[in-house]
Design goal:
Blueprint (H helix, E strand, L loop, with lengths): L2 H32 L3 H8 L4 H7 L2 H8 L14 E3 L6 E3 H6 L13
Antiparallel strand pairs: 1-2
Helix pairs in contact: 1-4
Length: about 110
Amino acid sequence: MSTRSRSVKKTALIGFCVIATLWVFACAGLYGVMRQPPEAFARVMAQVPGPVAFLVLPFETLWTHARSGALRVGDSVPDFTLTKLDKSGQVQLSSFAARGKPAVLVFGSYT
């Protein structure tokens, strides 16, 4: 094998290692951003070109793991407060438990 051939292979290997390292750091950074509150995530994603996030990085896999949460079947629901549709006030989940009645949570889009 010639010296030139070894040099080309070494350069290609170094280039591949640099690109792989950058990809791993980009995945780790995106995962960290995905674990932030929605407002912080939106600020960062507004600066990232769409094809980069969705085609180059494993966006869906990272999102599934970053937003999976820790609740399991049978766990108590964490308390939260939501604004009423007519903006006349807020409703807190724990207020339903205080009445001694079960509450059903339905999440979906009604557009």
